[in-house]
Amino acid sequence: MAKTDVSYAQFEETLHFLGFTEKGSADGVIVFRHPETDLLVAAPVGAAEDIVPGMYYEVAQRTIELRGIATRRQFEQALSQAGKPSRRVTKRPHPVLSATP
Amino acid sequence: MARRGRPRQNALPPNLYPRRTREHIISHLSVRAVQWLAAKCGFIAEAPEHDYGYDLYLYTFDAEGRPEFGTVAIQLKATDNLQPYRLADNSGMAFPVEQRHLQYWKDNFLPVIFILYDAANQAGYWLYVQRYLHEIDFVADPNQAFVTLRVPLKNVLNEAAIQEFRRYKELVRGRMAEVVHHGENGR
């Protein structure tokens, strides 16, 4: 798969869409929490238009997949819709999928 | 259009075809050694999808099998001969690492573990990089290309070590939970 550059704005919108509704930042780190599963996702702080460092993006996506919040495909679909006025994906994935490692 | 039929003859002289070197083999062995130990602990050690300067990401799971926060980034170096790296007092190994890599690892807020793998003896030795850099008070020096990491001989790579890596990550998770607890504006 090709390497994707993801902005912080896209990343945050995607996480929010997937149910990461709590957010905090301190000491150069931004953290999102998924209340239903208590999963945390973190990345270095960046401006909305900055690119999320690839490692943190990859780890976030994989952790979300392992936790059963969204498959890679669902994550990437949500990401591709981020920033667009109307989402093609209107329904958030079920919080706990049967697909676990 | 795709070429059909037999492969093209003499595309490369035989001596230029790719070969599997001993370096490839011991590198593979080191990856498998970590993955085996991780699996024994119920965890996963995966190669990153893209090259961000690490060889493996360790994903851990809690007692109920639920995936936990983040990852442990692992950098592996494999050798067939540990002897040239041994410290004179036999307390460990000294391994030179490019300073730019160290700075990158230092800036990572997730734990970075350096593993020196002795393929001849199927043994590994590890170092928690950020803690080590903190202990030696590491400051990047523009005039220095390499920095020597001292990997203690007592830091044997085994299941207990993998659990220790998890503990380092969970300490980071605790700090992250504090950050999100304090909300949008942080502390």
Structure notes:
Chain A is built from three helices and three strands. By secondary structure, chain A is an alpha+beta fold. Chain A has one domain. In chain A, strands 1-2-3 form a three-stranded antiparallel sheet. In chain A, helix 1 (8-17) crosses helix 3. The longest helix of chain A is centred in the middle third of the chain and has 14 residues, at 54-67. The two termini of chain A are 20 Å apart. In chain B, strand 5 (112-118) and strand 6 form a beta hairpin. Chain B has helices at residues 22-40, 99-107, 129-135, 159-181; strands at residues 44-46, 56-59, 72-79, 92-98, 112-118, 123-128, 146-152. Chain B has a five-stranded mixed sheet with strand order 1-2-3-5-6. In chain B, strands 4-7 form a two-stranded antiparallel ribbon. The longest helix of chain B is centred in the C-terminal third of the chain and has 23 residues, at 159-181. Chain B has a single domain (19-181), classed as Trna Endonuclease, Chain: A, domain 1 (3-Layer(aba) Sandwich). Chain B has four helices and seven strands. By secondary structure, chain B is of the alpha+beta class. Chain A binds chain B through residues 1, 3, 22-29, 31-33, 37, 39-42, 44, 53-55, 58-59, 62-63, 66-67, 100-101, and chain B through 44, 46, 48-50, 52, 54, 57, 59, 65-67, 69-71, 73, 108-110, 173, 175-187.
What best-fitting shape of chain B do the alpha-carbon axes yield? globular
Mean pLDDT of chain B: 91
Strand order of the largest sheet of chain B: 1-2-3-5-6
Sheet-strand content of chain A, in percent, reads 15-25%
Number of helices of chain B: 4
Uncertain regions of chain A: pLDDT < 50 for 5+ in a row?
Answer: none
In total, the number of strands of chain A is: 3
Strand order of the largest sheet of chain A: 1-2-3
Number of domains of chain B: 1
Radius of gyration of chain B: 20 Å
List the domain count of chain A as a whole number: 1
